[in-house]
From TrEMBL, chain A:
One CC-aspect GO term: plasma membrane
Protein name: Peptide ABC transporter ATP-binding protein
Subcellular localization(s) per the UniProt record: Cell membrane
Bilayer disposition of the protein: Peripheral membrane protein
Family: Belongs to the ABC transporter superfamily.
One MF annotation (Gene Ontology) recorded for this entry: ATP binding
Record-linked SUPFAM superfamilies: P-loop containing nucleoside triphosphate hydrolases (SSF52540)
PROSITE patterns on file: ABC_TRANSPORTER_1, ABC_TRANSPORTER_2
GO biological process: peptide transport
Keywords: ATP-binding, Cell membrane, Membrane, Nucleotide-binding, Transport
Pfam family, one: ABC_tran
TrEMBL record, chain B:
Entry's localization field: Cell membrane
Transmembrane region(s): 9-29, 101-122, 134-157, 177-196, 235-261, 281-307
Transport in keyword set: yes
Keywords: Cell membrane, Membrane, Transmembrane, Transmembrane helix, Transport
GO MF, one annotated term: dipeptide transmembrane transporter activity
InterPro entries: BPD_transp_1_N, MetI-like, MetI-like_sf
Main localization (coarse): membrane
Protein name stated in the entry: Peptide ABC transporter
Length: 340, 316
């Protein structure tokens, strides 16, 4: 069982040095991704999802005054202890990433083909001609119509959905084992969204890839993921299999997320449930449980002592003092309807 | 691309027409009768009237403009009142030193500014970045004549390395040519260098924030390649704009430096002509400089198209 773990994140902390001092954007998170598994990371904006992803890729090195703690073990090697050039070998070749906004993720002054070929040639010693053929094959694999023609086109000549397919082709260029998809469908319209999700599913089945799916859309999670990680303010507050999240969410925040999904068959005059308040900024992280300020179940204990992430059921971890109480209330309320 | 080039070239024509009209009206906007200016204070009234008649100054402005413009289209800008030669010839004589000076100043500016700007952007916030930015601020603030005098003081008066002033044409040998132009070019180019450095830095910083830079990193592309292939090409447009504009300023604004170093360039020609009210020369030189400016901008526009497919392929 342990052997098929591809990526293991242990106690990862990511800090940014800012004018307000050193901020902890990711706070002691631990999780693992198995081979051929699609893991979802969900949470509101600013909860540390993207920072987690970019920490794994070490993309933050390039930009900010950033420091890490903990370990990111990829096939047993700690990525955080790799040198810059060693990390460049991992990027694209072992772990690839696609981003939220396909409109701006491709370089506007180079052709699609140029950018995919560049990715291929960065890691593979093959001729330009072979690389071009491979790029066209990749475009075809991602179901882009007339790939030979697209090869010579510029990003601005393609639609958003097409560009996201190009991004996926780019990510697949060197057969990575792990794909990190950072909100890949958020900027797309609904029909395009589902096509892209189908494509991501195909990657798992046909290429045996693992995927970390970062999203705030629980619909995407339901459709794609086998396991879900819920994050709040830099911390993991719940990890469970996807059915368990939808059937028996334990954390009040997860419950809130689920309740805030509108139902087509619901009473439209009724107001949608929302989680009160907003995510506090990183320089104002509360003592005790991070969510206590917005939690309807919060007690004095919650506001003083931080709960541990603990296994409450088989493979179901929750970071909450009151999960039993919540489970009970939910049962009494005749359980929350699952939307999917 | 052909479409784009064609459209850009077409768009130059109305601009040049407007320039021609404005330039022509200089004669009417400035006080003083050309005939009287040519003949001097001692001329009799009959002589003045005779000359006015001969020069066609009594014709209507429209008639005069048509005549002037007709000649212009044939490349004839008229003759100087004072220098026994045509305006074209006078311009040609004085243009080479100015062009040489401007090119050299621009070259020095670009060679200094591009690497410094890129470097400052990559190491933003570092001591080096702050030093470069500080120096460039000084570069923008110090007037060129002051810098020229300081350079003369150091390199000519104290060290005796370079000539104090003067000009040698290219025909006198490249090394002589460069020896005389080096200090003027540095004095003239310093401000451009400062401007281009700052623009390069800010353009690069803006590009760094773009997602495609993150994409390039996520592909495992080497740092240098990300910088020069992905970032610089995108930052090139604003940098190019500044270079183009400053080159125009170099050509027109060299007058001060030309005066300090006694270089017989366009600046001197203009100053002398204005002092003598040599209207054909003023008109001709202003027109030719405007044309240079417009053509320069045209070249920059065309380069935009080369660099950025979104401009080149725009169908609108």
């Amino acid at each position: 069982m342990e052997n098929d773990i591809l990526l293991e994140v242990k106690n990862l902390c990511t800090y940014f040095s800012t004018e307000k001092g050193k901020l902890r954007a990711v706070d002691h998170i631990s999780f693992s991704v198995k081979e051929k598994e699609i893991v979802g990371i969900v949470g509101e904006s600013g909860c540390g999802k993207s920072v987690t992803a970019e920490s794994i890729m070490r993309l933050l090195d390039e930009k900010n005054l950033v420091s890490y703690e903990g370990e990111i073990l990829y096939k047993g090697n700690n990525l955080l202890s790799l040198k810059k050039n060693e990390m460049q070998e991992v990027r694209g070749k072992e772990i690839a990433m696609i981003f939220q906004d396909p409109m701006t993720s491709l370089n506007p002054v180079y052709t699609i083909g140029n950018q995919i070929v560049e990715g291929i040639l960065t890691h593979q010693k093959i001729s330009k001609k072979e690389a071009k053929q491979k790029a066209i094959d990749l475009l075809r694999f991602t179901e882009i119509p007339s790939p030979e023609k697209r090869f010579d086109q510029y990003p601005h000549e393609l639609s958003g959905g097409m560009r996201q397919r190009v991004m996926i082709a780019l990510a697949l260029a060197c057969n990575p084992k792990l794909l990190i998809a950072d909100e890949p469908t958020t900027a797309l319209d609904v029909t395009t969204q589902s096509q892209i999700l189908d494509l991501l599913n195909k990657l798992k089945d046909e290429l045996n890839m693992s995927t970390i799916m970062i999203t705030h859309d629980l619909g995407v999670v339901a459709e794609l993921c086998s396991r879900v990680i819920v994050m709040y303010l830099g911390q993991i507050i719940e990890i469970a299999n996807v059915e368990d999240i939808f059937d028996s969410a334990q954390h009040p925040y997860t419950e809130g997320l689920l309740n805030s999904i509108p139902h087509i068959d619901g009473d439209r005059s009724k107001k949608l449930n929302v989680i009160q308040g907003t995510v506090p900024t990183l320089d104002k992280v509360p003592v005790g449980c991070n969510f206590a300020g917005r939690c309807q179940y919060a007690t004095d204990k919650c506001r003083e002592v931080e709960p541990e992430l603990k296994e409450v059921m088989d493979n179901h971890f929750v970071k909450c003092w009151n999960y039993e109480l919540i489970r009970k209330t939910n049962k009494e309320e005749n359980e929350i309807a699952t939307p999917y | 691309m052909i479409n784009y080039v064609f459209k850009r070239i077409l768009s130059v024509i109305p601009v040049l027409l407007i320039v021609a009209v404005v330039v022509f009206s200089i004669t009417y906007l400035t006080p003083g009768d050309p005939a009287r200016v040519i003949l001097g204070a001692d001329a009799t009234e009959t002589e003045v009237i005779e000359l006015q008649e001969k020069m066609g100054l009594n014709d209507s402005p429209i008639e005069q403009f048509t005549r002037w413009f007709g000649n212009l289209l044939q490349g004839d800008l008229g003759d100087s009142y004072f220098m026994n030669k045509s305006v074209m010839a006078a311009f040609a004589d004085h243009f080479m030193p100015t062009l040489s000076l401007a090119l050299m100043a621009q070259l020095i500016a670009i060679l200094i500014a591009l690497p410094l700007g890129i470097f400052a952007a990559v190491r933003r916030g570092s001591v080096l970045d702050q030093t470069v930015m500080g120096i460039s601020l000084i570069g923008i603030s110090v007037p060129s004549f002051l810098l020229a005098l300081i350079l003369v003081l150091i390199f000519s008066v104290n060290l005796g390395l370079l000539p104090v002033a003067g000009y040698q044409p290219l025909t006198a040998g490249l090394d002589m040519h460069l020896r005389y132009l080096l200090m003027p070019a540095v004095a003239l180019g310093a401000m451009q260098a400062a401007l281009i450095t700052r623009m390069t830095r800010s353009a690069m910083l803006e590009v760094f924030n773009n997602n495609y830079i993150k994409t390039a990193h996520s592909k495992g592309v080497k740092e240098k390649k990300v910088l020069f292939k992905h970032a610089l090409r995108n930052a090139a447009l604003p940098i190019l704009t500044v270079i183009g504009q400053t080159f125009g300023v170099l050509i027109t604004g060299a007058a001060v430096v030309e005066t300090v170093f006694n270089i017989p360039g366009i600046g001197q020609l203009i100053i002398n002509s204005v002092e003598r009210r040599d209207f054909p020369v003023i008109q001709g030189v202003v027109l030719l400089i405007s044309i240079t400016y417009v053509l320069l901008n045209l070249i920059i526009d065309l380069l935009y198209g080369v660099l950025d497919p979104r401009i080149r392929l725009d169908k609108k």
